[in-house]
Write a structure and sequence with these properties.
Layout (H helix, E strand, L loop, with lengths): L1 H14 L3 E3 L1 H10 L4 E5 L4 H13 L4 E4 L2 H7 L7 E4 L2 H10 L2
Parallel strand pairs: 2-3
Antiparallel strand pairs: 1-4, 2-4
Helix pairs in contact: 1-5, 2-3
Amino acid sequence: MTESKALSLLGLANRARKVISGEELVVKEIKNGRAKLVLLSKDASENTAKKIQDKCQFYQVPIKWISNRELLGTAIGKESRVVVAIMDLGFAKKLEILLC
């Protein structure tokens, strides 16, 4: 239930242009300090998951897990996505609460 609410909020954040998707773009935003929260799909490859987790840990960006890549992609109106970054602190905090 809370994951579906979180995905609805993610769609709203996307329409507000506060979401970045794609592994390389997300890593770039983490390094630049603009990513406030990272959402990672549970079915991401081991290499991708490790890379994103390591970057988030090093740059102290919170990370939350989503059930699968199709849900994550559908929430932002695209095909399957493995990782997205939330760029707005307000959206990030609310998503963290919904996904805890």
